[in-house]
Amino acid sequence: MIVALAGGVGGARLALGLAEVLRPDELMIAVNTGDDFVHLGLHICPDLDTVMYTLAGINDPVQGWGIVDETWSFMQALERLGGETWFRLGDRDMATHIERTSRLSAGHSLTATTERLCARLGVAHRIVPMSDDPVRTIVHTTGGALAFQDYFVRLRAEPAVTHIEYRGAEQAKLSPALHAALASPGLEAIVICPSNPYLSIAPILAVPGMRAALEGRRVPVIAVSPIIAGRALKGPAAKIMRELGEEPSSLTVARFYRGLIDALVMDNSDESLSVPVRELNLRPVLAQTVMRDRDSRIALARIVVEQVRRAHRSTRAGVP
Amino acid sequence: MIVALAGGVGGARLALGLAEVLRPDELMIAVNTGDDFVHLGLHICPDLDTVMYTLAGINDPVQGWGIVDETWSFMQALERLGGETWFRLGDRDMATHIERTSRLSAGHSLTATTERLCARLGVAHRIVPMSDDPVRTIVHTTGGALAFQDYFVRLRAEPAVTHIEYRGAEQAKLSPALHAALASPGLEAIVICPSNPYLSIAPILAVPGMRAALEGRRVPVIAVSPIIAGRALKGPAAKIMRELGEEPSSLTVARFYRGLIDALVMDNSDESLSVPVRELNLRPVLAQTVMRDRDSRIALARIVVEQVRRAHRSTRAGVP
Questions:
Q1: Count of CB atoms within 10 A of residue B104's CB?
Q2: d(CA B311, CA B320)
Q3: b/e map of B234-252 (b: 16 or more CB within 10 Å)?
Q4: Which of A67, A84, A86, A167 has the greatest number of C-beta atoms within 10 Å?
Q5: Higher pLDDT, residue A10 or B181
């Protein structure tokens, strides 16, 4: 089994590709929950939903979040009532938040709740939260500390980031399914999807046990860079790198994951970074990493799976 | 000022008529909250909503509850997720429940929350809950005790009623606005709307202070019978009367309110009940009580107001 770490739109796209080339028993997608928040009394898990809706084939491909053919009567009515409307909640999407909140309130874990939602939506592959415990990404900016969605949605990621905190991570436990998968003899590889390293992957790494599992890896670990020719296709990854004093590039991604991964998949356009990446003792893999459609997702997923399986065989055969 | 006690569709219809003939400072509508319940994590107040939507002109006139031109994407999506769908919640209606629940959770009273919702919906007349404290109508049936909405919506009022309990009423306080209105020198009359006596009005009477205010009334109190020629226009009032061993008729309504009211408005078709009603020391008032449209609501409201004002003048003049 391959465990994929994911969060956000880029993560969901590769997760979909992986789900197309791997059987349900061959893949577990572990998703960032640092973006989760309680809003209007609802427990909202944006990254879990994006991955879940994408694998269910009901995601809105244009806006990158939410459900396709969504209606907005609730939001219009809430606006009339003077409610908080900065976080857009579609009518169909509301059902997910209401049902999740109900089940969590009834004492079910986020893992069990996600499993049930996925089953109802016809998602065959396993999607698990990184943790059943609350971890909250706090973005510290030049203007003060901001809850993640305040930073990301309400303020459109405009404030300059000084550092990022994953509050609660130290007390959190990996979700039981993820923990078991990492310890399983059946684990074949770990894939880090092209998600924002700071906002989507770092919260997962901050949960005790995850970083150690990568550092002491006995299976290949491969990451896909979300930066292409110095830019992020979507989201503020490149902007945050600059704000943190780093050059926005796949080399910065390589440094961020150094010691945790064996190989980094970079876009063909970043071929010139192969040498410096190799100097970090990482194997650069060049590929077409822009995933505009289903075919390109599958193609990238195939390359990733092929790379880790080749590495896996080499490791097993004792070949370095 | 006239205080009207209301609940349900019949109550909302007369409340609308009263709002058409009285200025905002001349009317307070005190609404049953015994039907309220927490469902899917939402604090739902069906009677407050029916009155509020009716006065705002956005009620669905066909189904008698909810908002006109409603959409149902949320409910469809919830069904797909395997959520509870026996209580229908429209997309626009959801905004009311979410906003109310948020404000109650933030520590606002139901009175303040209702006031704000009404203001946002452009309702000028004052709508107040009977109490800010929880009162829950429990319907005891031959099949056991049922929470109100389980009885009324899920089981379509089919189980035979043995008695009805207003749980929490003894510990509840009248809402501050209603309490103040009842004690105010400006109080002109109290009107009991043609709502179900057992399910809509009795919960209000069960809150300490309300029954005493009617028993020791110093202003005219008039009720409008919800029973016409032995039948209820809508809802289970007549059915419950039979189950409780009473004949479904305005005379049963008169006995129910005996000692609390001065006059009972009955439908013209119940003229034959005038004599027995008079024998209960109640003044029968015959009128067209079917409120099919706006004009008939206003006409009935005019009769009610005229009756109480005439009684008020008589009382003030010392004439019995």
A1: 17
A2: 9
A3: ebbbbbbbebeeeebbbbb
A4: A67
A5: B181
Q: Closest approach of chain B CAs to the CA of A102, in angstroms?
A: 6
Chain A environment of B98 (Cβ under 8 Å): 40-42, 74, 78, 83
In this prediction the ipTM stands at: 0.92
Q: Under DSSP, is residue B306 helix (H, G, I), strand (E, B) or coil?
A: helix
Average pLDDT, chain B: 95
Task: Provide the shortest C-alpha distance from residue B43 to chain A (in Å).
Answer: 11
> Domains in chain B, start-ordered, CATH in brackets?
2-316 (3.40.50.10680)
Per DSSP, which regions of A122-235 are E strands?
A: 126-129, 136-141, 144-147, 161-167, 189-192, 221-224, 227-228, 231-232
Say if A122 is an interface residue toward chain B (CB within 8 Å).
Answer: no
In chain A, the percentage of residues whose pLDDT exceeds 90 is 91
Instruction: Give residue B317's pLDDT.
Output: 53
CA distance A79 to chain B (A): 9
- Kindly list the residues from chain A whose CB atom is less than 8 angstroms away from the CB atom of residue B75: 95
Give the tens place of pLDDT for each residue, A179-233: 999 999 999 999 999 999 999 999 999 999 999 999 999 999 999 999 999 998 8
Token reading at A120: 């109802």
Q: Which amino acid is located at A151 in the chain? A: Y
List the one residue out of B17, B27, B187, B173 whose CA is nearest residue B110: B173
Residues of B in contact with A71 (CB under 8 A): 71, 73, 91
Q: Does B38 touch chain A (CB under 8 A)?
A: no
